[in-house]
Amino acid sequence: MTNNALHPSRRQLLAGLVTLPLAGCSGSGGSPGPISTPAPAPPSSVVPSPSLNALAQRSGRRFGSAVAAFPGPRVGGTVQNPAYAAIVAAECGVVVAENEMKWATVQPRPFEFDFTRMDQIVEWARANEQAVRGHTLLWHRPRWFPEWLNNYDFGANPASEAERVLSTHIRTVTDRYRGIIASYDVVNEAIDHDTNGLMETSLSRAMGSPEAVLDHAFRLARELLPDAELVYNDYMSWEPHHAHHVADVLRLLEGFRERNVPVDTLGIQSHIEMFSIDPATGVGPYAERELRAFLDEVVSMGYKLMITEFDVKDKALPSALPARDAAVADYTGRYLDLMLGYEQLEDVLAWGMVDGFSWLQGFAPRDDGLEVRGLPYSSDYRPKPLRAAIANSFIAAA
Fold it and tell me: 316 versus 141: which is more confidently predicted?
């Protein structure tokens, strides 16, 4: 069910909540990438109070962020960077590894596991009283498999061997973090965009179908973790050009229910994109009706919702920072207000907290070469209007 209660005006909230100075309003820089030496931790006064997590908790939710861990000097947006870590510790109640739990990282060679980087995140999280989410047990795309898995010889009994390979991976990862991680993206992005069906991989060819792989992953995860939240995670967002993908995801979710596959929650990545601007209004298009219809169908099937990887692609926006930051904040607020209107929506996680270390700098760079500003804090660790927009949406949802 949806909550259609009227919210305070977004402009009123943005005008009244945050009065801290906002960095970057007179200029901007390029994409710095990971820094070579840690920046100084921001003064505590720069992180607004109450925290985003405290505001989320008012409606029974949590706010969190992706974090990373790198050995050596590449500290960037990682738990080894005290400036970045201080913001995450102050603002968040839950963290998720950006890449450190993916198959290619933890099992780079057949049946040889390396948890060094993931353990660093878990140790930091526990020391800073952060819950940890698991991302991901199976990213069902050949591009993100380790090369050995794409080329694995499954032998004379391929189905049983593929099941053994998949089970060994899921069991080893979940056993290591038993009692620590209670929510997993069991499967990530299983849709084939070219066929509008499910992605074929070495595992699916060996086991007979993609459904056999996905169903086994969820059923084994439930057997191993009877009380955990099991999530199917995909890049659903708010753009009309994703209409075919929406239908494909709904079909997958319907299939899970028909086959009694134990999926609890749809993870909605929410890499929202401002892909065009209306010159008359200065804002982007909002496919609100389509998004609401999609969410209504998902929750009618009994699924919960989670925002798992929030950020904003600002490629279509002008370069001037005040106008760009205001547009990003407005778009974010409209999106979160709609999403938070669903009582089935649980946690909200950003895919990072500081612009300079966002994956978008490389994945969706701006044509003008300026830095993408799609996260709550600027590259000098100062809160932006986007942070205020997130806070205001949590306040309105309480």
Answer: 141
